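Hi Y.,

Following your request, here is the sequence exactly as I used it, all 472 residues.
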Amino acid sequence: MSASSMFADIPVGVGVIYEGERIRKPQMYVELGGPNIKEKFELLRVRPINEVEDGKITIIDRDIKELEEGSSIPYGILVEVAGKDLEEEMEGVMERRIHDFCNYIEGFMHLNQRNAIWLRVSKKSVERGLSFIHIGKVLQRLFKSEIPLIEKIQITFFTNQEKVKRVYEEALKVYEARDARARGLKDEDVDVFYGCTLCQSFAPTHVCVITPQRYANCGAISWFDGRAAAKVDPKGPIFAVEKGECLDPFNGEYEGVNKVVKERTLGAITRVQLYTAFNYPHTSCGCFEATTFYVPECNGMGIVHRDFKGKTPNGLTFGAIADSTAGGRQVDGFHGLSFEYMRSHKFLKADGGWDRIIWLPSEIKERMRDYIPKEIYDKIPTEKEVNTVEELKSFLKKNKHPIVQSLKEEVKEEKEKPIAPVTIVPTQVPTITLQPQAQSPTLTPTSAEEAITLTFKNLKIYADKLIVKKKK
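Below is the corresponding structure, written out as tokens. Let me know if you'd prefer a different format.
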């Protein structure tokens, strides 16, 4: 047993100390699910008390040590719980704790949620004998400890491709049914939102704000899930957030939300606007299902999800864009989001909603077919139509995407804007002096008696390189 373990019968350490542990490919024994595997899932179901055998752990096909080293395999985990006070609406929030509890296990990395999970087991932990049986025991004990309403729990691990595929199809139907329950409620209908800090071990300045019309970024927690979680575990990582005064209904800024976010991030984030990807956008952790990315040449945003394997028109992969989005930062135009949020009437409302989206993978486009306005559906290209920014601009113009009109208006405003004259003094040239070990150059202007005035119109300046030479 590790010295940093909660349990004597588990061959590796177990505890919060291992949250946030990353297992890189050279240290990896096996990868479960992940971006290269289509069928993977984690699912929690509430069952009648007589249908659950407490403490039962089943492995359908192979245990960890029997898997081929270095491989990526289809994987699923089914957690079945029972208790007289458990309700079906609690499933989603309890399911999300699988992520939390798996990361307590040394050498067992868990990322994402639902059918987007990505897990890795380290070589070191396999050498010490880590098995799915041990993982199951840890999960059972932590679930019962953290959620006392659970009276019985049984867990099944799937590594057989056909069995994974079968339960995967069932899981997709369960996810959709959960999401559909939340679609009728509006943000204006409630006085309380919910906050989630489950991912602060990865992103310390991130607080997910969950509203009826804005799902958690991970796509796993709805407003109803938040309500159930706060009821089950009032002191847990999911908690009520009083809306308070609405400071900006258009951008979605609330006094109560700002207060809680500031407290929970220790002042790192002080303002959040829920319906925009600019100014004070909602922060992102790293578990988001998709993210927007700003394309300045078109003044629009693309969307890319983690299962997209290609490059976006600006030449970046999902991973590269995610690096600019994650970590609890507020970066204009880069905005982690869930698929369910894309179905909402509040989806980037302040930015123009779907009218501001100028590119997305064909998989997302088909998935959102019933939610993208019909008048713009064919005007948004995918990887099948464009691969570069120039091709993107051409497609948008040809298909009369709404963003083209906004660009014309911006150009018109720019031309009509009065240009202030610039006064240039020929002999008053700043001298750049570099001091040894100085933090930055110092500017020393000289004086002059005469000056001329030049007015530039439509001036564009490009510089490939700046050369600073020491004066002899």
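The chain has a mean pLDDT of 87.

Thanks again,
Q.
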